[in-house]
Amino acid sequence: MISRYSRKELTSIWSEENKYKIWLDVEIAAAQAMEKLGYIPRGVSSVVKKKARINVKRIHAIETKVKHDVIAFLTSITEKAGINARYLHQGMTSSDVLDTSFNIQLVQSGKILLKDIEEILKVLKKQAKKYKLTPCIGRSHGIHAEPITFGLKLASFYEEFKRNKKRLINAIDEVSTCAISGAVGTFANINPNVEKHVAKKLNLKIEPISTQVIPRDRHAFYFSVLGIIAGSVERVATEIRHLQRTEVYELQEYFSNKQKGSSAMPHKKNPILSENLTGLSRMVRSYVVPALENIALWHERDISHSSVERNIGPDANITLDFALVRLSNILKNMIVYPKTMSLNLNITKGLIFSQEIMLELTKSGVSREKAYKRVQSHAKKCFAQSLNLFDVVKKDQFIIDIVPLNKLKKIFNSSSHFKNINLIFNRVFK
Asked: Which domain CATH number covers 245?
């Protein structure tokens, strides 16, 4: 996590201050339940809530001596809240606090990521409808295939981010659990009603069964979803990068008046933001494997996952948040060149209509193999000699006898490829 790729909304969630604040919220909620059950004196939770102060430096100072973060935290709270604080953490284990708090941080982060996705969906919907009927070439393997519209490209991205939104909602739900079950999850020294109260107080669900830790398959799912979303970010970024190439130049990232593109070449306008997103996406995906490896902990608990989560928790969420916001701004401010799209659409001089000629031949009884071979031979000639496919095909008497000239002319028109655009848009933008 570096400040260059961080937003305050996310960094504040993963700050030491917020982490310890959540720890305190968990301890106070647990104390409230213990008071109601008669396990600790009444008034403990209110005194602690009133007097306790988070002092990060003091917690770290104590930790250097005791070598235990939760004990250091509790000691620091006791120094401020007084003797009543000794009743905190009764029958609890460190993981009760750590895991429940970590899940809260993931939920807090996930909700912001959801807002980010919603903004992307809003932008994509607007842009897709704007360019719904803007013709451009569809490419397969990077090679001109058949006509599509730029709006269809954007609609495809929209549908993917709709799926990402659903995935993230499910992932947030997956980690929205609370475990206050004691040393090995048996509630031997703590009443299960304490867990019930804490879960309700902090808007979480009860973890049905924990060992000493909340099972890490939940977290693996969450980080896997972040990785998938990052993949979607890179998919869009890669498309923008390709379309901004000089030879293509169908669109461009916004370039401000005072912006510089190259330290050496004044003419350059580089897709630096999209390239940046490609790199950030790779980073987010790199956090998925460690999360998956955290699932297999020893027995009821070990702490091999702890160092991993201290890194990937903030880094994955903060990086993805930054990437999503950047992507939204790119899509909102991108410059589209419909004229260039039209020029590129016609650059192969009609070769993109080869399939339709072949299909018309097969409809009249010509075998697919024969039809394919005949059209392909004309296409090869056109490509090699830079000829127009229509001009070549119309001289082929065999084809003209089957496909009259008036019908052949209709084939060489992109509009036939757009007859189902409304159907597709209605599917996507329900």
From this structure: 1.20.200.10
Question: Are 132 and 264 in a shared domain?
Answer: yes
Cα 73 to its chain centre, rounded Å, is 34
Total domain count, the chain: 2
**H helices present in 287-420, as ranges:** 288-293, 304-333, 338-345, 354-363, 368-385, 389-393, 397-402, 405-411
Strands 335-336 and 135-140: unpaired
Tell me which residues are annotated as active site.
141, 262
Class of residue 205 by CB neighbours under 10 A (exposed 0-12, middle 13-18, buried 19+): middle
What proportion of the chain, given as a percentage, has pLDDT over 90?
Answer: 93
The answer to whether the beta carbons of residues 340 and 329 sit under 8 Å apart is no
pLDDT per residue over 341-356, tens digit each?
A: 999 999 999 999 999 9
Same domain for 118 and 210, yes or no, is yes
- Kind plus residue range of the DSSP H or E element containing 179: none
Helix (H) or strand (E) holding 137: strand 135-140
Written as one letter, the residue type at 236 is V
Q: Which residue has the tokens 């024969």?
A: 370
**Residue 374 contacts residue 166 (beta carbons within 8 Å):** no
**Shared domain check, 262 and 151:** yes
Q: What is the pTM of this model?
A: 0.95
CA of 426: how far to CAs of 88, 90, 141, 280, in Å?
57, 58, 28, 33
For the record, the structure tokens of 47 come out as 């005194």
Query: Residue 303: which domain range?
Result: 3-7+92-342
- Phi, psi for residue 273 in degrees, rounded to 5: -70, -40
CATH number of the domain within which 395 lies: 1.10.40.30
- The neighbouring-strand residues paired with 252 are 335
How many C-alpha atoms does 306 have within 13 Å on its Cβ side? 12
Under DSSP, the state recorded for 143 is: E
Quick one: pLDDT band at residue 135, thresholds 50, 70, 90? very high
Sign of CA dihedral 58, 47, 206, 315: negative
Q: Is the pLDDT of residue 239 over 80?
A: yes
Mapped onto helix, strand or coil, the DSSP state of residue 388 is coil
Closest CA to 377 of 396, 402, 400, 363: 396
Whether 306 and 271 map to the same domain: the answer is yes
Q: 304 and 368 share a domain?
A: no
What is the per-residue pLDDT for 354? 96
